[in-house]
Each structure stands twice: as structure tokens, then as C-alpha cells.
Design brief:
Layout lengths: L1 E3 L5 E5 L2 H4 L12 H6 L14 H14 L4 E5 L2 H4 L9 H16 L3 E7 L5 H5 L7 H17 L5 E6 L1 H10 L10 H24 L5 E6 L4 E3 L4 H23 L5 H11 L8 H7 L4 E5 L4 E5 L11 E3 L17 H14 L4 E6 L16 H19 L4 E7 L18 E3 L6 E3 L1 H12 L1 E3 L1
Parallel strand pairs: 2-3, 2-12, 3-4, 4-5, 5-6, 6-8, 7-9, 8-11, 11-12
Antiparallel strand pairs: 1-15, 9-10, 13-14
The protein binds 6-O-phosphono-beta-D-galactopyranose (BGP).
The site of 6-O-phosphono-beta-D-galactopyranose (BGP) has 15 residues, from loops.
Length: 449
């Protein structure tokens, strides 16, 4: 069977500033929360050089063009534009993204710009980061500079990448900066991220910007470990916690009621000021960006300490197909997830803003990376996209994570995702088998199934 895709479907791949750019002290960039984090004692790696995309973007865009990318998703480092988080603009920082965007356009690659992919200017982190409501206005000030500067050239915009990861990594698990483990703070941070997003969307519309604006979420489809009622309840709670807590404010301007009530009772958070929910409601997105990697299977946790994410526990499925990093490969989950969102909130446009497979790449003696597993992972997910389209779920584009090998936030340079390989000793680039396959697929725009 031949699975064909719409002619204007945008096929591409993604990166994020801190993970790919390197050049952390170049051209007046300010320090970010991640620069600080990776230079704490006993860190084994950092993004100081990484892929050095900042200095090699031309070569990288040439390679992206060679593998037929129609679009490229990247993020802007806030601290390159505002080294102190706000106030004075660093023109050289803007110049880099000017060059990048112009080079993409010259190669017929549609830029998709994410305003914030976790690398908060350190000056703002010292003011309290997203916990400080003032940072919301700093974000709007920063967004305005980019909207003004790239008006007409960038047509696809995302405000924030994965607020859930920022909240969980930074404020619940204490694994990302600022290394906090505090539910009251976490819930407040989530609310401020939503406000920042909503205010940027409002500004985008007031400025009559051409193009589309959305947010990138990482909702996760959740399966109960059994048919027992307690596991079904646990799965519902887990979906609220991982997914709906972030989807509902974006698509409906509200928080899931049961969880909101519990959080306000237990943690006295989030504090919602009068008018906040109207701001969220008023910010209609043009699309929802979805990063999809895996599903979760959860069971009731009999040993719960009573915290909101403690009444369920993640379990491993007996016959599940897991990556070397323990992420379950479950392509159907993409279809299940988008169907569920559409069922809950009505029809909306989607972009799959990240999807990909991280593992230890092996380099053959001839220097090639024959990454059949990654190729198959991507292929399987593209088949699910087709299934969505057939079912009336409007996906407009798909981005492989990642365009090129880069730093994995908490796994360093071992866990690879790229369509393009980077030798991190020499910084030489080469296209992997998955990259060649993806290029052919894009040229054909169909999959033989
Ligand atoms: C997403 C992030 C990406 C990327 C990806 C892979 O959550 O948006 O920035 O890191 O996950 O994650 P990891 O590198 O931890 O395997």
C-alpha cells in the first residue's frame, strides 16, 4: 500500500540553542542557567562547544538542504539577545539569528522559531526565574524584539518548549536548573509559563504578525497497567499530571478541576491573580506543537506519600519494546494522544515538533552510521501521522529530533539523536543512513507500507 501525504506537508527536523550552538561566550552572549549548571563541580560535560552550530551554521544548513528538509525548528537563546535578561539589546546576538534565518530562506527551508527552550538568562534566574512573576513581562519584552525583527521572514513561531519539563525537571525532580524540589514552586512556575505564553500570543496578534503562533507541549498518552479500578484511576491522575495540566490552560483557558482543587488545598498553589484566567482564555493558539517520544504505563502506588505525582507509579511492560535508555517505542501512542486531545478540545491544527530516537550510535569502519533502528522508529511514527490525517486530525508538519547530533540535557554526548552525525573530537559532520532515508522519503512524499 502507498501512503501518500499532502503536498504542502512540512517535513523537517529540530534543535535547540543551548544543545547545539556552543559558543557560549561569543559575541556578547550572557550566561544562562545551563551554563551555570554545567560548570558546577563534578559535571562531566557541558555545552561550551557542543556541535558548534553557532560557527558552522552554513555548513549545517547545506547538509539540511542536502537531506531535503522543508523546515527547520530552532530556538533563540534569550541571553544572546538580552545578556542581562532585559534592558540592553546585544546586536551581535540578533545578527547571528539574522544570518541563520536568511541562510535557511535562501535554501528554501521554512524557519520555525521557538522563543524559549529552557536556557534562561542567568540574570533572570537570579531574580527567581519563572517563579518571579516579573519574568513574564521580561519574556514579553524579549518576544517583542524578535517579532519586530523577524516579521515577514519567520512565519512559524512557538513560545515555549515543554513547560512540563521545565516544571518537573527544575522544580519537582531537581534535575534541571534551578535544581528545586518543591511542589508549591513548581505549580506557580507552570502558571507563570502559561501567562508568559499567553501574553506573547496576545502581542503577536496585536502586532498583526504574519504566520502562526503556538506552544510546544510534551503530553504523554497513559495506559493503566491493568483493568483494576485503582490502576485506571491512577492512569487518569497521571494523565492530568503529565499532560492535561499543560493542555487545558492552552486550549481551554482552565486547569483540570480536581487536580487544581487538590493542589490549592495541599500546596496553596498556584496563586492565580484576578484576570489571569481571562488572559489564558484570550490567547488562542494557531496550532499545538506536540513533542512525542513514548507512552507511559502506570499503576496505583500503594506506598504513596500523598504528593500529586505519587499516587501512581510508572511500570515497565513485559513485552514492551524499549530503547537502550528505557524509553518505550510505541508509535500508536501518537495517534492515541492526538485523538484524545481532539476529542477533549475539538479540532485544532498540530505540528509534531519533536520525535526521534536516542541511542549509542555505532560508527562502521567506513565511517558510516547505519542506524536502522532510528530509521524504523521515524518510519513507524510517520505511518501513524498518516493514520491521523486519514482520521481527520490535521497535522501540518513533522520534525525529527534532532537535525544533527547535539548535547542531550542530562545524558551528554553519548545519547545521539541526529540525522546528521557529529564527531565531537573533530566536529566533522556526515549524514547517517536515517538522514538519507528521510531525504528520499521527503522527495517522494509517500511510504510504501
Ligand atoms: C525533549 C526536549 C529536547 C530533547 C529531547 C530528548 O524533551 O525538548 O530538548 O532533549 O527531549 O531528550 P533527551 O536528550 O533527554 O533524551
Amino acid at each position: 500500500m502507498k501512503l501518500e501525504f499532502p503536498k504542502d506537508f512540512l517535513w523537517g527536523s529540530a534543535t535547540a540553542s543551548y544543545q547545539v550552538e556552543g559558543a557560549v561566550n561569543q559575541d556578547g552572549k550572557g550566561m544562562t542557567s545551563w551554563d551555570k549548571y554545567y560548570h558546577m563541580p563534578n559535571r562531566k560535560y557541558n555545552g561550551d562547544v557542543s556541535t558548534d552550530h553557532y560557527n558552522r551554521y552554513k555548513e549545517d544548513i547545506k547538509l539540511l538542504s542536502e537531506i531535503n528538509q522543508k523546515t527547520y525548528r530552532f530556538s533563540v537563546s534569550w541571553a544572546r539577545i538580552f545578556p542581562n535578561g532585559s534592558g540592553e539589546i546585544n546586536e551581535k546576538g540578533l545578527q547571528f539569528y539574522d544570518n541563520l534565518v536568511d541562510e535557511l530562506l535562501a535554501n528554501n527551508i521554512e524557519p520555525n522559531l521557538t522563543l524559549y527552550h529552557w536556557d534562561m538568562p542567568l540574570a533572570l534566574m537570579y531574580k527567581g526565574g519563572w517563579l518571579n512573576r516579573e519574568v513574564v513581562d521580561n519574556f514579553v519584552e524579549y518576544s517583542k524584539v524578535l517579532f519586530t525583527h523577524f516579521r515577514g521572514r519567520v512565519k512559524l513561531w512557538s513560545t515555549i518548549n515543554e513547560p512540563a519539563s521545565e516544571v518537573m525537571g527544575g522544580y519537582i525532580q531537581g534535575a534541571h536548573p534551578p535544581l528545586r524540589k518543591n511542589y508549591t514552586e513548581a505549580l506557580q512556575v507552570a502558571h507563570h509559563l502559561n501567562l508568559a505564553h499567553a501574553k506573547a500570543v496576545k502581542l503577536f496578534n496585536e502586532m498583526n504578525m504574519e504566520g502562526e503562533i503556538g506552544i510546544v507541549l510534551n503530553p504523554i498518552p497513559i495506559h493503566p497497567a491493568s483493568n483494576k479500578e485503582e490502576d485506571i484511576i491512577a492512569a487518569k491522575r497521571a494523565y492530568d499530571f503529565y499532560s492535561d495540566w499543560y493542555i487545558a490552560p492552552i486550549l481551554a483557558g482552565k486547569y483540570p478541576e480536581i487536580m487544581l482543587e487538590e493542589c490549592q488545598k495541599k500546596y496553596n498553589s498556584p496563586k492565580i491573580e484576578p484576570g489571569d484566567m481571562e488572559i489564558l482564555k484570550g490567547a488562542k493558539v494557531d496550532y499545538l506543537g506536540v513533542n512525542y517520544y513514548m507512552r507511559r504505563v502506570v499503576a496505583n502506588n500503594p506506598d504513596s506519600t500523598g504528593n500529586i505525582d505519587d499516587c501512581f507509579k510508572n511500570v515497565r511492560v513485559k513485552d514492551g519494546n524499549y530503547t537502550e535508555w528505557g524509553w518505550e517505542i510505541y508509535p500508536e501512542g501518537l495517534y492515541e494522544l492526538l485523538s484524545r486531545i481532539q476529542k477533549d478540545y475539538g479540532k485544532i491544527d498540530f505540528y509534531i515538533t519533536e520525535n526521534g530516537m536516542g541511542f549509542y550510535d555505532k560508527v562502521e569502519s567506513n565511517g558510516q552510521v547505519v542506524d536502522d533502528d532510528r530509521l524504523d522508529y521515524i518510519r513507524q511514527h510517520i505511518i501513524q501521522i498518516h493514520r491521523c490525517l486519514e482520521d481527520g486530525i490535521n497535522i501540518k508538519g513533522y520534525y525529527v529530533w534532532s537535525a544533527i547530533d547535539l548535547l542531550s540535557w542530562t545524558n551528554g554526548f553519548e545519547k545521539r539523536y541526529g540525522l546528521i552525525r557529529v564527531d565531537f573530537d573533530t566536529l566533522e559532520r556526515s549524514i547517517k543512513k536515517s538522514g538519507r532515508w528521510y531525504a528520499d522519503f521527503i522527495a517522494n512524499n509517500y511510504i510504501e507500507y
